[in-house]
Write a structure and sequence with these properties.
185 residues; alpha/beta; Rossmann fold; 2 domains; 6-stranded mixed sheet; two-stranded antiparallel ribbon; 5 helices
Length: 185
């Protein structure tokens, strides 16, 4: 942890690239608040080192077949063994968050289950809606997502592309993260 300018390390796992787009946006908003940001791609290979200079560490991950990407789950397990929960934030990117009231751990089943399985009460947890892009998915992925969307009342047309992300929510989240980094223990 540094004195002076606060720093946030964002570790992320993205499958189709939208989680990367969200954390890039977060990084931009944080930079505008004079918060230093490091972005680390958990899908890039070997498990990265935990940034000891970060005032706050955010783990952001997309959902695949009902679970957050395994690279993020493994990293979060390692992180919580080394860093106090008060310096950890968790962001879930999933299509369930497209519905009102599904942006918190209480309202988002995927985020709630991830935190429960990890046994973690982070300083901040949130869910942000992702992007639905049927044409970009492989056949099996498209079939699975269409089935889930059918059950949840979402679009099932195979030509559908919808970005559900609430970018104002992402900007507000950056403000919350900046405030946490500035007051980090």
């Amino acid at each position: 942890m540094t004195s002076g300018r606060p720093r946030i390390a964002i570790y992320f796992a993205s499958h189709d690239g939208h989680t990367r787009k969200i954390v890039d946006c977060l990084a931009g908003h944080l930079g505008g608040r004079d918060v230093g940001v490091t972005l680390i791609d958990l899908m890039a290979g070997m498990s990265p080192a935990i940034d000891p200079e970060a005032d706050l560490i955010l783990v952001a991950a997309a959902i695949r077949y009902g679970y957050h990407l395994s690279a993020a789950r493994r990293f979060l397990a390692r992180l919580q063994a080394e860093v106090p929960a008060g310096r950890i934030a968790v962001l879930s990117v999933n299509l369930t968050a497209r519905k009102p009231g599904r942006q918190t751990a209480e309202g988002n089943i995927y985020l709630r289950k991830w935190l429960m399985r990890a046994g973690l009460r982070p300083a901040l947890s949130a869910a942000v809606a992702g992007k639905l892009d049927y044409p970009a998915y492989r056949w099996f992925d498209r079939m699975m997502i269409q089935a889930i969307m059918h059950i949840s009342g979402g679009p099932t047309d195979a030509s559908t592309i919808i970005e559900y992300t609430d970018w104002a929510q992402v900007e507000a989240l950056a403000g919350q993260l900046a405030a946490l980094a500035m007051t980090s223990p």
